[in-house]
Amino acid sequence: MKRILVLVFFITLSSQAQPDFNYYKGLQSEGEMPQAFRKVLASKGDNAIKSVFKSGKILYGTVLNRYVEKILDNLLVNNPSLRSEIAVFIVKSPVVNAYVTEEKLIFVNVGLLAQATNEAEIAFVLAHEMAHIVCKHVPLKTESGISLESYLSKHNRSREQENEADKIGIEKYYSASKYSYQAIDGAFDVLQYSYLPFDNIPFKRSEVETDFYSFPDSYFLTNINPIRSREDYVDTLSTHPNILKRRTAAKHIYGNRSDEGRSLFIQDEDLFKQVRMLARLESIHQYLIYHSYGNAYYNAYLMLQEMPDNVFLFKAKAISLYGLSKHKKDGSLWDVITKPAKVEGEKQQLHHFLGETNRKELNVLALRFLWQAHKTQPEDASLLAMCEDAIRDMISSNKLKLSDFSDYGIKDTLLIDTLVTEEIDTSVVKSKYDRIKTASSKKVKPLPTFQTVNYMLVDLKQDNEFVKLVEEISMKIEDEMVLQVIDTKGKMVDPSKGIFIWEPSYYYVKKEKLVDSKSFKGKKNIAKALTLSAKRLKFSYQIFNGDRLQYYTTEEYNHFCEVKDWMQDLFSISADMIAYRPLGEDNHLSQNCQYILFTSTVERPDKFVTYLKCQDLALSLLCPISIPMFAFKFMLPETEVITSLTVIDKKTNKVMYSSSQSFADINYGKPAMSAFFYDCFYTMKKGGKDAKKKK
Question: What is the mean pLDDT of the chain?
Answer without folding.
Answer: 83
